[in-house]
Specification:
CATH architecture of one domain: 5 Propeller
Largest sheet: 9 strands, mixed
CATH class of one domain: Mainly Beta
Distance between the termini: 45 Å
Number of helices: 5
Bound molecules: beta-D-fructofuranose
CATH topology of one domain: Tachylectin-2, Chain A
Oligomer: single chain
């Protein structure tokens, strides 16, 4: 029987067979993360973060400043409630380590949705485009999980030695809605969390074509014979969607068939993004332990695939797709990872979530006293992980400071081979944590 039998024929798949190989190995387990300093209490809760980039994907440097955008919420708010009020702020830095809060990017009154979820940001011809998820409707009595891909276009950016400012007026526009055939609409969804979100801009260096990736779900109608007809497994229908801009205009998109799907495997392939390298396409996304289909065990972490062209055939990295996993004794310490290239290395920055939970699960956190929920929440960026990447294999070998986003030409501390360990015959490093 066809395992999948749903979705768009020909779409590369993350199969159950591959996902069954997901395992915590030396290559993929991140070090334990603690706050940078004990008194390091951020002014706002921050989570999903992305970097202002040029069209070619390089990190933008504006008069020596670089810029990141984060979803944020007031720091006295229960961390579990933050998604309901998320607001995009920007932060700027000269050294890529210490970030100054520039404030909210948009005016709450004019941006789309009742709150804004993750996206990406492009600096093109002096104009700033902030792609985001319009979550909910501007006016709604009850919080909804309606999601559309949106952009704030036309932002200006000014910088001098004292700082940097990003200003409107922004032109807000809904760019894409699901079509119900390749991408599930809200009324079709049968799973745990509906998704059509997290737009990520990408220009293919080989073809010059302009793309927008996003997280979605593949429609799997009731009674379908997908997943051997198992209705429970059918609820796990995550996909990575893609749209093309026929003109290169960052506000002009046409939906295309998905890049990858995970029907019968996983429900949420979050914040997908591509790192082109040596003529290959490395496709990354984040996922969670609880979004794997029954019979599969996975972890909160970064997952990745590689292909020789943007459209696949995609092979899972490290055999299973797992690239970064939280350690077994801190399974919820981080997620929402973003991978970016640095010379031969791959750097991966994530969101520092709950730590010091002991045996508690993520579901227990909401029952803890308020002060404890706040005390155990990172609410900021993780240390940046350094990975080697060779063909279909990756390996975590070191880490940088919390929130460090180096420019491509910035020299990083040498990987200390004594501490890292000898290079083996296979030319890989031993992990130093
Ligand atoms: C991942 C995520 C994103 C979404 C955001 C909402 O961390 O679920 O997919 O845009 O959080 O807060």
């Amino acid at each position: 029987m066809n395992e999948r039998a749903a979705g768009v024929p020909g779409t590369p798949a993350w199969t159950r067979e591959q996902a069954e190989r997901v395992e915590r190995t030396d290559e993929v387990v991140a070090p334990i993360i603690y706050p940078r300093r004990e008194d390091d209490v951020p002014d706002v809760h921050g989570w999903d973060t992305w970097v202002l980039r040029e069209r070619d994907g390089s990190i933008a440097s504006v008069d020596g400043w670089r810029v990141i955008f984060s979803l944020t919420a007031p720091s006295d708010m229960l961390p579990g409630k933050r998604h309901d009020v998320a607001e995009i702020r920007y932060f700027y830095s000269r050294d890529g380590k210490n970030w100054i809060d520039g404030g909210p990017v948009f005016d709450r009154e004019t941006c789309l949705g009742s709150r804004q979820w993750a996206g990406s940001a492009l600096l093109d011809d002096g104009q700033v485009y902030v792609f985001y998820t319009a979550a909910g409707r501007a006016v709604e009595e009850e919080l909804s999980y309606h999601q559309r891909l949106a952009v704030g276009a036309g932002g200006s950016i000014r910088a001098d030695d004292d700082g940097l400012a990003i200003d409107g007026p922004w032109e807000h526009e809904i760019l894409l809605r699901p079509d119900g055939e390749r991408y599930e609409r809200e009324e079709q969804y049968r799973g745990m969390i509906y998704t059509f979100r997290d737009p990520w801009f990408f220009e293919d260096p080989a073809t010059g074509e302009t793309w927008l990736l996003f997280e979605a779900n593949t429609p799997v109608p009731e009674g379908s014979d997908a997943c051997g007809g198992d209705p429970e497994k059918q609820e796990f229908n995550g996909s990575i969607g893609i749209a093309r801009s026929p003109t290169g205009d960052p506000t002009d998109w046409v939906l295309e068939d998905p890049l990858l799907d995970a029907v019968c495997v996983n429900q949420e392939l979050e914040r997908p993004h591509v790192v082109p390298r040596d003529g290959r396409y490395y496709l990354f996304f984040s996922s969670h332990d609880h979004t794997f289909a029954p019979g599969l065990e996975g972890f909160d972490g970064l997952y990745g695939f590689v292909a020789d062209s943007l459209r696949g055939e995609y092979r899972p990295l490290n055999g299973s797709g797992l690239v970064v996993a939280n350690p077994a004794n801190a399974p919820y310490q981080a997620y929402s990872w973003l991978a970016f290239p640095h010379g031969e290395e791959l750097l991966v920055s994530g969101f520092f979530n709950y730590y010091d939970l002991g045996p508690l699960t993520i579901d227990d956190v909401g029952h803890l006293p308020r002060e404890e929920q706040l005390a155990k929440f990172g609410g900021t960026l993780t240390p940046t992980l350094r990975l080697t990447i060779e063909g279909d294999r990756t390996r975590i070998v070191d880490s940088l400071e919390h929130g460090h986003v180096p420019l491509e030409d910035e020299e990083l501390p040498p990987l200390d081979t004594d501490r890292v360990g000898d290079r083996t015959a296979a030319g890989r490093y031993r992990r130093r944590f």
